[in-house]
Amino acid sequence: MRNFEYFTSTRVIFGKDTHLKIGTVLKKQNCSKVLIHYGSHSAVSSGLIDEIRSSLDEAGISYVTLGGVVPNPRLSKVREGIELCRKEQVDFLLAVGGGSVIDSCKAIGYGLANPDTDVWNFFLRTETPKACLPVGVILTIAASGSEMSGSCVITNEEGWLKRSSARNDLCRPRFAILNPRLTYTLPQYQTESGCVDILMHTMERYFVNIETMEITDSISESLMQTVIYNSRILMKEADNYTARAEIMWAGSLSHNGLTGCGTGGGDWACHQLEHELGGTYDVAHGAGLAALWGSWARYVYDANPERFAQFAVNIFDIPCSTDFNKTALAGIEAMEDYFRSIQMPTSLHELGLDLTEKEIHDLAFKCSFEDTRTIGVFKQLNMKDMEKIYLAAR
After folding, report:
1. Cβ distance 133 to 91 under 8 Å?
2. Most buried among 11, 44, 338, 347, using CB within 10 Å?
3. How many other CB atoms are found less than 10 A from the CB of residue 144?
4. What is the phi/psi pair of residue 206, to 5°?
5. How much is the pTM?
6. In whole angstroms, what is the distance from residue 67 CA to residue 377 CA?
7. How far apart are CA 243 and CA 101, in angstroms?
8. 274, 161, 163, 258: which is closest to 219 by C-alpha?
9. What is the pLDDT of residues 11-33, one digit of tens each?
10. What is its EC number (predicted)?
């Protein structure tokens, strides 16, 4: 197992109607003007933004609003937010939404707190942020775990490059308000795509080719089992509060560093491969991960079939064979069967993408940063490997 540091500074306020306390929560942050940042019009039409406004009015906190964040959040919206916040002298950022809105807020926070640097440089990783304007979250989508993480992902429309910032505790939200009821109205596809994202944040850290800690493995396996069980419930009962609550808390725990303790940080190849799909074709992140995972797993499992066999036995109760390869492949197939059971794609075609070999080559070229980097640690992948995985996923 590897040495590790574990840190999370985010205050979690969990439960029914907790978002109505936002005025009181923000008052403790000693802020004078807040940006309420959100995504689609549904945040307005549902009455959620009005409830937040009322709470802030009651607390005597000034605010401005900026909506329009889309999945795979855009750099242009980040720049718009930076300009608005400078003009309005905003000193706190409130994300009302899921991972896209939270990541957009974090990027705005970086841009505001580092005025002499172009914010995109932090995503190219040519420069490191020295500060970030404080961020808080009212979560409406259980998926990304960005409400407790120190990372964010932004898409630059120029070249459709989807890039993540380096992990940095500066952008960790000060607080996250988690009310499972706010996720009731999500479309089923978005709910289940979010469940895949939660699983993948755990699995990226789980599938490493080193000795791991038994306690970390147990936490990860329990989290995965919880998400699988409750995601199936939500296929039939969209307003099941208990299932929504389990999924929401699992999403936060999956990406706050807990499941990476002792694993060396994780593999993250699937995420890197999916980022090119999301950036280029604007697909839902979790669905894109589901479409790629089986092809990635079959390509790399022989680097440590025993690890995949452990996954098969402990997650899907597959009998352990003396042939680890056989058990590993059965576990991969079981995971794909699970994806199908929640109506998630297991190929690019099912994702709605019928890509040519040229288009796949271009994805691998972008993912490898023009053939200058490798990805993954379970098995290190070069550009040719990436291309083969994309082809296998067709």
Report:
1. yes
2. 338
3. 28
4. -75, -40
5. 0.95
6. 38
7. 24
8. 258
9. 999 999 999 999 999 999 999 99
10. 1.1.1.-
